Every structure is written in C-alpha cells, then in structure tokens.
Structure prediction request, 546 residues.
Amino acid sequence: MLTCLINGTVETRLNSDHRLVAFGDGLFETCLADRRGVRFWNDHLNRLENGLARLGMIWTSEDRDALETEIETVLAHVEGVVVCKLILGRGVQGRGYDFDPDRQRTDRIVQVFPYQAQPWHLQGATLVLSEVQASVNPTLAGLKHMNRLDSVLARQSARSAGAHEALLSRADGRLVEGSMSNLYLKRDGQWLTPDLAEAGVDGIIRRRLLRQTEETIRVADLLRSDLDRAEALMISNSLIGLVPVVSLDGRPLTPPAWDELSRFRTAIGLSSD
Amino acid sequence: MLTCLINGTVETRLNSDHRLVAFGDGLFETCLADRRGVRFWNDHLNRLENGLARLGMIWTSEDRDALETEIETVLAHVEGVVVCKLILGRGVQGRGYDFDPDRQRTDRIVQVFPYQAQPWHLQGATLVLSEVQASVNPTLAGLKHMNRLDSVLARQSARSAGAHEALLSRADGRLVEGSMSNLYLKRDGQWLTPDLAEAGVDGIIRRRLLRQTEETIRVADLLRSDLDRAEALMISNSLIGLVPVVSLDGRPLTPPAWDELSRFRTAIGLSSD
Prediction:
C-alpha cells in the first residue's frame, strides 16, 4: 500500500472491533487513477451512493465533498497509473449486529496501491469454471459490498488451474460472473451478460457497455451449458478494462473479432490500443 | 471492548488492508466465558477448525495452543460472565482476492466484551419475519464466517418492529434462521429446525440439541407458511442459550411447556433456572 487516509487523516489502521472487520458492513470501489483523478469517477460515485442508500448508511454532501478532497490529496503526487481503493464502512459503538440508524457514521478509507498492467489484459484471458458458487441474495445483489468470500475461494480455482480468472455460477446452473470481473457471452451472434438481480457485482464497465452500446449487449439468464456453445467470451472490470477470453477450462476459444472489441472499447471510453 | 489481543500482543488495531477488512476472509466465534474459561469450548473449537479447513486456512497445533493460551490470558482477571469473541483471519501480503496458499498465515484476534443477560432471554423473545433474505451459498453454508451483511440488515427489521429477533428466509420461501440465532419450530408435536446445507450458521446450541436429544428435534425443510401453523417456536445461540418465542409479527404465541424447555436445557448442559 502506497498511501492510506482514514477520515482524512494519514492512518493505516482500524480498530479490530470496527463493523468492517466484524461483519463486512460496508462498500468499496477499486478504481484506476492517476494524478488527474479517478477514471470513470461519476460511475464509481454513482454506484457507491446507490449502495449506501441500499445499506441504509449515512451519507451527506459534506461526506461526499470530504471523500473527493481526500482522493484529490492522495492522487496529487502519484507517478503514473495507480489503483485507488475506496472503502466506506459503517462506524458505530458497541458489539452485535444491531445499530441505531440515527447514531451511525460512515468512515472513509482511501488507499493507493501500485498498478501493474498484465500482458493478458490485452492478449486475452484464460478462464476456468469454478466449483465455488456465487452467493445468492437479492437484498445484496449488485452491490460492491465487503462480503466477498465467494470471490476469494473462486480465485483459488483460477490459481490451481494456472488461469487468469474463474467463473462463478449457482446451484441451479445459472452463470453469475468471474471472481473479479463481469462476463459476456456471444450466442447466435448476440452478446449477452448474466442478469445480476440475485447475485453478482454490477460492474462499472458492464454498466457503461449496457448504457452506451444499446442492444449490442443484452442482459439474459445464462447457464453453465451455454458456455459449451459460446461463440466468444469477454470479461471486464475497472482495472483490466474489457478483455477477450482465449480459453475456457483448457479448451481454446476464438476471441471476439478485433474490430468488434475495439468498437466496444471506444464506445465506453477505453482506448483500444 | 474490555481487552483485545492480536496474535498474543495487547493490540486493538488492524491494518486497513487486512483481508478481514477487505473481504471478510475469516471466521469468528462469540462465546460465553468467565474466569474458568469458555463455555462449550470444545464445540466452538470444533466449529472453528472445521471452518478453517473449509476456507483452506493454515492451522497448526501451535496455532491452537497459542489461541488457547491467549484465551486463558484474557480471561484470567475478568469479573463474572463476559463475551469472548475470537476472530481468525487470513493474513497475506498484497491486494486482490488471490493469495498463495503456501504463504498465508492465520491471524488470531481475541476480544473480551461485557455481557449483560436480558430479561427476555428467560421470559421469551418477540420475533418478526424480515424481508431481508438470507445469503444462499452451499460453499459457505454453516460456517460462522465474517460475511454477515444479511444478518446486519435483518437486525434492522427487528429494531423497526421493536422485536428481539428477526427471521431470515429465502426467495423460495424456505426459513433459514434468525439474524443472530437458530430457529426451532414445533409442528404436529414434532420439533423441527431448518436445514442449513445451503444457508445459515451451524450454531453451537443447535448442534448440541441435535446431538444430545436424538430424534426430539429433527432437521427439515421449513417454509415461511409453516410459521402460521407452528404450535411453538424457540431460538438459540451461545449467548442467549435456548429461548422460547412469545410472539411472531405481533401475534402472541404459546411458548413451549416449561418442562419441555427445561428438559432441552438440561440435556445440552444449560441450567434451566
């Protein structure tokens, strides 16, 4: 970690009885950033504020101003591209799940980490289908909350197989996402991405794609069995951008056509070189 | 918090990039304790060690000895009954879901909090059915892991209604548990408790009841609609013991017969007075 501010103070540590530790009672954003600011900041902020409302956390315009000032401060002297991770956690006195909604505060943690682009971000990702299942919960679905054990365990499936990413699905066979990315699957000439109403993270790049490419990518119920007849696959997140998939469970896959990928990247404001 | 040891050192704080904060990558136990030790320690330890194995965490006999020594140390001078909370978190360098399984360590946090028995622990609990759903994930079900946002949100349903506890269920109508307790429901003269193969926490008191009372309590698929025709309800956890339910969603319920409750409490080693 290069820098860390907690509520505006240079501080790396947190009380071990904080609700972020005890329950994962908070939200985060992992952003690509440089001295000029956070890339796609409006999208990140929009998702954060939507999440804060859904978790019933306190968030005022003063909180937002403070967060934006803190981000500006930590980014003022960075060299090149970095990862800026934002964590908003519910701060309350006392032990136990309960809290008084009128006596909570939202703690802000702003962390900066080095960023290293990997060759596979451009050349394409190898995927495996993990046996670890995605957590299903309509109350929490879509949120980038701090309860991420399913991704942690699925990530190990990628590691064991020497792959870049692992896909999570549900007991009923429905595909959800990758451990750190959203998934796109081309079937009968149409790009599709799993519905996230019950599980998964509503990613920034996925949102931009759905918003800015109209019917080119559609939300659908996708099954594990759809992987067998996929014409092409892609994955995305804020750090890797939009990445073609070159193999699944060791079976080579034809990546999407370069001009198609390039068109998507341009449409959502990612450079395609 | 009265006391806190982290890996044996008097220390209350944790790095904000620890995986406990970032992902809830760990397990916990909330135990009733006094100067003589932790009540039902073998059960707590057994559940912890099962969880450590399922999450692929490192745990040696030296780790266990250290944890037991630390518990003994913090309890040596406490007055009366306290809550001893144990947290085991995966410690690893670096950012991101991935970790090298051969280069992880398990960090031990031992916290002591005051304990206050509430009148309702003996007189009976008021319950509501929450609209917040339980997280469904067979890979994680049963574990007392640190991803507890569903309980946090459900707890607010209890608060809004002025009730002691809120029940969580699933989209398909199946009952799972309370936000901080396991559930027992009497139907046609038979005590039943929800199956936890896909969601919920495998509680210590529930385990003891299932083990020590033979067929008196059985595991079953229970639906929200079963609540309407329940003859009686009980809830349990390590801090409240086994507690009769006196109302559900504002509707009075006949609590289980005193001698029945007393028989259960005695069977699992809880005093019934």
